[in-house]
Amino acid sequence: MATAAPIKGIHWPRTLRARLFIILLAGLAMAHAMSFAVLFSERYLAARSVMFNTLETDVATSIAILDRLPAAERAAWLHRLARGSYRFVLGPGLPGNPELEPADAEVASKIQAAIGAKYPIKVESIPGAARHLQAHLRLSDGEPLTIDVTPRGVMPVADWLPYVLVAQLSLLVLCSWFAMRQAIRPLANLARAADTLDPNSNTPRLSETGPTEVAYAATAFNAMRDRIAQYLEERVQILAAISHDLQTPITRMKLRAEMAEDSIDRDKLVQDLGEVERLVKEGVAYARSAHGNHEQASRIDLASFIESLAYDYQDTGKAVTIEELGDGAIVTRPHALRRILTNLIDNALKFAGSAEIEVQRQESAVFIRVLDRGPGIPNSQLQAVLQPFFRLEHSRNRDTGGTGLGLAIAQQLATAIGATLTLRNRDGGGLVAEIALRQ
Known about the structure:
The chain has 439 residues and is an alpha+beta fold. 53% of the residues lie in helices and 17% in strands. A 5-stranded mixed beta sheet has the order 8-10-11-13-12. A 4-stranded antiparallel beta sheet has the order 3-6-5-4. The chain is rod-shaped.
């Protein structure tokens, strides 16, 4: 069950579905209880009215019959004249209390109204756990007669009524749950789509069917997604155009600098122009990395892919080794994956001088790790280094600090191909960069 948070003294569930379910169910249950109470009260008043009317008529008739019968025959008629709430007894009855409760006084007044002034009557309350009244009078020949009354305070309830109430409550719960499901499901779908929003991915668009409000929200969300995709595409096009336009003047400036007389200033100028050119290229690469899904996915042999990448580095004299190599084929975007691994290996070579590659295959994922024995990264900055233009080395020396885009490009490309890039410090010193590819 969802954990609860106190709100004004009431511990509400955290989920909107549970809150609305409780509110709706409580409202329907209270409305149902009020309707049942009103119907029960109306039935009680109607039954009470019928009982009193019947009491007046039956008592008057019964006393008239007993008064006209011979004294010897009256006892035989007593059981015939008895009813559920009262009976007749020949004799003075039991001693009681003349002080009556309001409810008993009402019953006494009905009996007196039924008998009339012809038979003087005295009504008393008989002590006991249940309500018990006795009305004492004398017939025309002087024989004492007692009307023994046991009023029914509660109407009898049918045996099937509790089952009906349980069935009604179950129906209320079912309808409330179904209503909440219909109301919250579009909101949950919208939240899930927003959480996994990637305008460049092939994830299905939100369905624009259903109630008017839901269809309108889905249409607005899909339109927003299209606009974001358009803005990202425009960003890449603008950066590519800037890069293209800058290449020509940068190349001319480098040629002019190289043709100038040898000097320290000339060498610094050529170096600075090279850094500008590299920074422009890295910026464009970062912008384009968000659109890594433009490459079609294909099936590759993972072992051959990793070996080819390592051999390319080894041919240039770089210390890149393969420690563990899992076999088998995977479906991915090979150029994007190669760029990710290249950035991670270059990062390891820059700060540690060597890099190790491990590949492990599990049932649902393939893990590719690039390990080094460099200085590592403080734990508090393991996530920050994946952001663009963030450098642990804050100097202006690009050889040590770099552009701050290598890991950011790897992170963005990993997201584009559906992988996860995780950085952690290695036991004994160094860094582990792990790529998890879900298959």
